[in-house]
Write a structure and sequence with these properties.
This is Succinylglutamate desuccinylase. The protein is an alpha/beta fold. About 25% of the residues lie in helices and about 25% in strands. It is built from seven helices and 13 strands. A 13-stranded mixed sheet has the order 1-2-3-5-4-6-9-7-8-10-13-12-11, sandwiched between helices.
């Protein structure tokens, strides 16, 4: 189990499902799912996921670098940690998904879709989080879901936070800034994403981290995300993390357009970057209600605006 990522990509099952790595017990729970439990007190329960989309490989490579010293017993761990590779089959195939976009199926939405690989996988991942969070009574629960964007972005590193009734704790938002995210987007309505599921169902502080653009394995320049990788490593072992010089800009989702037919046309060129600003009247009248920024996410277009309160939900 010393190379969990490589074994998963090869479709291999480890010879030993449980092993000790220094002061950490590592358990292989299922394909693409392992749990790391340190000896002694922990800071809380943390889920780190990547590969929800099989063409988003940079976060998987980053996760491999984070796990390597832990699985060799060379670094301490202060969290009870669940590591998830969302869609191993799609990662092996180099495809965004096999049958259906996995990140639209959580919160039981998989039950309404045509059965396939992703519907079964969404059900399994929901069960994995249910078991993980039920096994402990930690008051602190985090879920960081690592992605890359389909399009280029004026903010190459940004976070998308799910709808949440309560205000977001400032220390969580500060950490996202210290992880060198340049922008934060706050949703105001429920969704079928993995991060929304963990937030809504388990009251986890959840965020989808978008880190650069989707590229095949071996074509990622991880130096672009070295500061974020360092922040994740510091989070795992509770080592000091330098504060960001500039806090991330904050946006809130004003409207979402969802493509439900192949006949849907979005009049925006393919090279338009995330967070590109459009003046009122520059798009169709139905969409141009104010000065807006558009962000594309796998069949959806989000119209976002600067957050008035700075904290997302009012």
């Amino acid at each position: 189990m010393d190379d969990f990522i490589a074994q998963t990509l090869r479709g291999e099952r480890p010879a030993h499902l449980t092993q000790r790595c220094g002061e950490i017990t590592v358990e292989w729970l299922d394909e693409g799912i392992i749990q790391l439990t340190p000896r002694g007190l922990t800071r809380g329960a943390l889920v780190i996921s990547a590969g929800i989309h099989g063409n988003e490989t940079a976060p998987v490579e980053m996760l491999g670098e984070l796990l390597a010293p832990l699985l060799r017993g060379e670094r301490p761990l202060v969290w009870r940690l669940l590591v998830v590779l969302g869609s191993p089959a799609a990662l092996r195939a180099g495809r965004r998904f096999m049958d259906y976009d996995l990140n639209r199926l959580f919160g039981g939405r998989w039950q309404k879709a045509t059965p396939g690989y992703e519907t079964a996988r969404a059900a399994r991942l929901e069960q994995a989080l249910e078991t993980f969070f039920a096994a402990g009574d930690e008051p602190v629960r985090w879920h960081l879901d690592l992605h890359t964007a389909i399009r280029g972005s004026q903010f190459p590193r940004f976070g998308v936070l799910p709808a949440r009734a309560a205000a977001w704790p400032e220390d969580f938002l500060t950490w996202l800034g210290d992880a060198r995210l340049q922008a934060l987007v706050f949703h105001r309505a429920p969704g079928g994403t993995f991060s929304h599921f963990s937030c809504e169902r388990f009251d986890a502080l959840s965020c989808t981290l978008e880190l650069g653009k989707a590229l095949p394995f071996g074509h990622n320049d991880l130096s672009q995300f070295a500061l974020t990788g360092r922040a994740l490593a510091a989070l795992l072992d509770d080592s000091p993390l330098p504060a960001a010089d500039t806090p991330p800009r904050r946006f809130e989702v004003a409207q979402q357009l969802t493509r439900r037919s192949e006949h849907f046309v979005l009049h925006m060129s393919g090279d338009t970057e995330n967070f590109t600003a459009f003046s009122a009247g520059s798009c169709s009248r139905k969409m141009a209600t104010s000065a807006i920024t558009r962000r594309m996410l796998s069949g959806c277009c989000f119209l976002i605006r600067r957050s008035r309160s700075g904290y997302g939900p009012d």
